[in-house]
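## Example record

The block below lists the input lines for one assembly entry, exactly as stored, with component labels intact.
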Amino acid sequence: MPKYYVLVNILLALVVAVAGQAVAEVTPEIQLGARGVMSLNTDIKNNQTTNAVSDFSDTDLMIGFRQKMYNRFRGQLVIGFQFPDAESDLGQVFFHQTFIKIEDKSNILKIGRSRVRTSLLDFPTLRDDDALLLTTVLNPFSNGENSEDHQYGNVLEYSHIFGQRVHFQIHAEHFKESPDTLGAAETDFGLNAVGLLLQYRVPVSQRWNRQIIQSVSIGTNNFLTDRPGYSSEYCQALKNVLFGFVINLKPDPVHFWDLRSQTVYNIGFDEVKEIGDFSDLARAEAIGNYTSIRYLYRRMERPTLQVALSGGYKDFPNATQPTNLFQVAGSLFYRIGFNFDVGLQVQYKEYSGDLRTIYGKNMTRVQFSLIYSIDQLWNNQFDDRESLLNLEHGYIP
Amino acid sequence: MDRRNFLKTSVTISAASLFPAPLLTPEAIAAVPERFPKPMTPTLDGDVKEFHLSVDIIQQEIVPGFKIHTLAFNNQIPGPEIRVTRGDKIRVVFKNNTELNHTIHWHGIFVPWRMDGVPYVTQMPVMPGKQFVYEFVAEPYGTHFYHCHWGTLLHMQAGMYGSFIIEDPDDPIKKQFNYEREYTLLYSAHDVNFIRKELNAMLDRMKERMYLMKHGRFDKERFATFDTKDELIEAVNEGYQPPYVTNRRSPSELPQPNWFTVNGKSYPVTPNLLIKQGENIRVRLINAGTEEHYLHLHGHDFWQVCDDGVPVPQPWQMNTVRLSPGKTIDILIEGKNRGIWTFHDHDTRRVTNNGLYPGGNLLALVYEDTPPEEMELNPMTKKMGLTSLPVVALDE
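Predicted structure tokens for the full assembly:
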């Protein structure tokens, strides 16, 4: 896909040109974000119980630098890494965020490694990938070994914001492609997916007191595959459509209730009727929904207790034998110190049809966790786009 | 170059370079009063002078190219000057148009204690959308000011202050120095990053608290408001975490001002004091900020004539006056040395804009009758495209 290469190369050249002439006089804003999620897991699978304390995936460290530019724009560099799942093949450390973002009041351009738009919503589960098969569009180029393959990629995104709440985004990505040969390195980094996203989203600072709608989103992801037997890019593309919303059930600053739901429809390839491996799983027609209801108690103007019940179902209508997935999860987080939480989560997953050959019949997982997160900012020089002052009293670039 | 051409050229250069107009053009002289707080015109209700003050969140341009969100009385910083005569009966109707709490404290004025504007001590705060009526008799004579006393550290440096002048028909200073023109200069210091962060945080908190208040769910611990000290101590003993403990909400450091204003503006758009040879002018200095200022006038001595509004028994001759937070000092300048003279803080950290010198509270005493030929630049400088002194420089 030479046209994508040209665009990416031009943008990268611009970035390199700027980086090569750094001047130290203007101190940037420095942001530090860190999250540690340590858990003791007890799994019951096929009537066998195993315990593990090796689970500290989702633990990450991010550092960001942000400055005003010569005009109304702001520029930001973010570098972040996380510790992947113990059984992944990503090594000890995975750089999940390494991007540059340029933005003004209504436009955002982002390039680099970052979260991809395979999910519209964050769900109140302990870990980001607890319900991956239900909440996330699956990367068809992955061998399924790493959940990060579906969550992060090399992205090129442009977003335009209409007013304060309507976001339109066009995005293109390079999703990780698992090499055919075990141990071989990935060599082709061309863009292999494109998508669109349209979202109505109430800014975070105004969410708690909205009567009903927090957000409504619809998006598409199209993976540019080499589908055998088809020559046009359209037919080769694996297409997914996502729809999600979050509504406030009780917008109360102390006893807050909300409900979020997301449906992912993978149009899939007609010829995939049996699911024997992860490649089939990602390419088979499927429709899945995941929904959470959450209660948040904020006693002293800070989160104190969060209880959530989540559940989802995914069906593969084109599969030869009835194949589906059911999952339910209950989670509880209690704040024991500033940004320090203790958590308990119980999940139950049940698979039928072809999925049993991959995942087994069912699995129950109980997790006890300690979580600490910080989000610190030094040399603060300007306001966020979605601060109350900028939203309600006029935007200052 | 004749005077007409000189003025014409000066105006052109001014517009092209974004600098304020040269100080002696008719436009510049006419604009000078606008840089001082305009006195408010009261309405009369019998023998009571009634003033209306409101507070809103606005955007204030401190210098060209730099704006912040601020709190402002009657949409201006500083708030309008209240100028009354000693003994007047005063009524101030204060309307809160913001989502924050406020009060007004009458600094230096002998008001009845329930009019003093200290939240939870003399009155309950004026809550969002509400109004409060302050009534008192204007005493004592002199230069005073008013300011918000809720969240004072934030609300004052965010702009909620204004001058309150109580005149006396038998003014002792006027008698002694025979002046006609006078100016009011309100000094302040601003940590604009603190203002921005705290205003956002306070707006966020207040939205929640007002929601709870509206639904009759006042919670002493959540609102951090107790009936008595004993009640607080008991709550702490039972596990309550006050906001100031380090594991709850206390900030890591106190505000560090990085902008220094006079009448809401920093150099080069600070107000200038106009004077003529042989004229006396009175300058009322008010420190509404948190920093101490050491104000020095070039080329002159001046007389300190009042301290906190009180005429000093013997005017004190000096060229640098110390203006502490909360102080008002009146000085009398005699026009004895024609020219353009800077008047600035000699703690030159306050003569900066965002750390860059010059800026801050630098302003000028300008003799209106300075001949243009005295301001001429040498030919080499003219080749640079500059016209005459004073030149506004932003990067020395």
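Chain B has one domain: 24-192+258-383. Residues 24-192+258-383 of chain B form a domain with the Immunoglobulin-like fold (CATH 2.60.40.420).
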